[in-house]
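ugh ok fine here u go
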Amino acid sequence: MDRLRDRVILITGSTGIAAAAAVQCAREGAGVFVISRSADHALALAEDISTAGAQAGWAAADLTQEDEADAAVAAAARRFGRIDGVFSVAGGSGRRFGDGPVHEMTMEGWDRTLELNLRSQALVARAATRVMRGQPPTNIGSRGSIVLVSSVLASSPVPELFATHAYAAAKGAIVSLATTMAAAYAGNGIRVNTIAPGLTTTPMSARAATDPTASAFVRRKQPLVEGFLTPEDIAGAAVFLLSDEARAITGQCLAVDGGWSVTSAPAAP
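structure:
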């Protein structure tokens, strides 16, 4: 329970996977700083962590906006004096803006989906990298670990059920961003990896969870968990990648998908 002792972890998002990760990081001894678009959610999560005995801070920010992302990351650095890890979870579906199959997709759907899921993570990664490069290394020579969030849909699509092409494009680009960052900053002692979750029980997956066809498909496609993953499944992988146990791992994409990427299952029985 001490894998993140004396480390400072910045987490973007305040529900679902982000909330589970914040709690797990705190249990592992980290100081946690939460950034969310919702001030109420961020404050509540930080207070829960503090009540449990860990150090916590928070900021409300629209991470698609450059000045707000920079200010929120700077607030984390001021609160704790450094940033040892980033788990960049915040994102969302662009369906309401017009994401869908590319022949039907609107340009607003394309732009807003990439803002939510790619621009936001790039801005947070940029600000955090600037902080990490300027801070002294830990006892193992690390200046930081950044974990970005992709999706199994970027590499293992199911067009019959999940035809959101802008979302998949954004999540695929995140893997490329992490790979190139890992190469660029390895010499600075900064590791950058990606987690690609399968279908997980979060507010974003509520539509699929209430669709009998999609739910039945997920049970077949993710046989290791016999359905939807839990946020804690993803959070556990993030804690590992943020910890010194992963000190020799960078530039990798870890699929936490219950078997999705290696299991053959038709969209309908």
